[in-house]
Amino acid sequence: MTFSKDQIYASNIQNLKEFKFDESVANVFDDMINRSVPGYQMVTKMSGLVTSIFATEGSNLYDLGCSIGTSILEIQKQPLPRDCKIKAIDNSQAMLEKCQKAIANEKKLSAVEFECIDIEKVEIIDASIVLLNWTLQFIPTELREKIITNIFNGLLPGGVLLLSEKILIEDPILNRINIELHESFKKENGYSELEIARKRAALDSVLIPETLSTHRKRLLQSGFERCDIWFRYFNFASLIAIK
Asked: CA-to-CA distance for 208 and 137, rounded, in angstroms?
């Protein structure tokens, strides 16, 4: 499947709307996220590898906020135990349709169950793996504890949550440096200063990052036995939490 180049914020749009995962974003999402999120390809690829290590026979594998299905395609490249079921969850119908098409194009891959629903409403059952990559940051902060607790309760013993997020750094100087490095990364990938500024404004009230210590505290308070960072690139980090 081919995707168009992201030019959503290339012009000086009047009355800029807040960011939404609508059809216009879905159409350019592959280009957008690869040029905007440091380490995206590595994290999605390694999500597949980690899943192959921790998935157990007959369990459910959830991708909460599956977007266009990149992580699911990586999971399906791996040897999985028998009778695993992959659950693709997203609250954007436009994104879920792109995910369905991408997976349908891979004829040899196993079936995936799709559901368009807010992740705080998903019932997690008999899960050995839950992916929550760059999704929690878009959820209102007052709902995040409920979501993590729900994931923990639905994981089997020894089950794993992979959580990837844009983060705040507690030291304000280092936080500013990492923001500047991230913006330089986007410039290197062809975004103009105008595009970067306008997207930042559109995301301002939608994407709410938190510190690593906040994420760790929430994970441990929800019941996870251990958690740690497994990937870090500027102000983006991925954590692994084990039940």
From this structure: 5
Helices (H), the chain: 23-36, 40-54, 70-76, 93-104, 141-154, 172-188, 193-203, 212-221
Q: Which two tokens stand for residue 98?
A: 């792109």
Of residues 124, 123, 128, 131, the one with CA closest to residue 82? 128
- Both tokens of 132, joined, read 């929550």
Q: What is the pLDDT of residues 57-109, one digit of tens each?
A: 999 999 999 999 999 999 999 999 999 999 999 999 999 999 999 898 876 66
SS3 35: helix
Distance of CA 13 to the CA centre of its chain: 27
Assigned token pair, 176: 């500013």
For residue 131, the SS3 value is strand
Distance CA 241, CA 224 (A): 6
> What would the pLDDT profile of 165-206 be if each residue is shown by its tens digit?
999 999 999 999 999 999 999 999 998 887 777 778 778 878
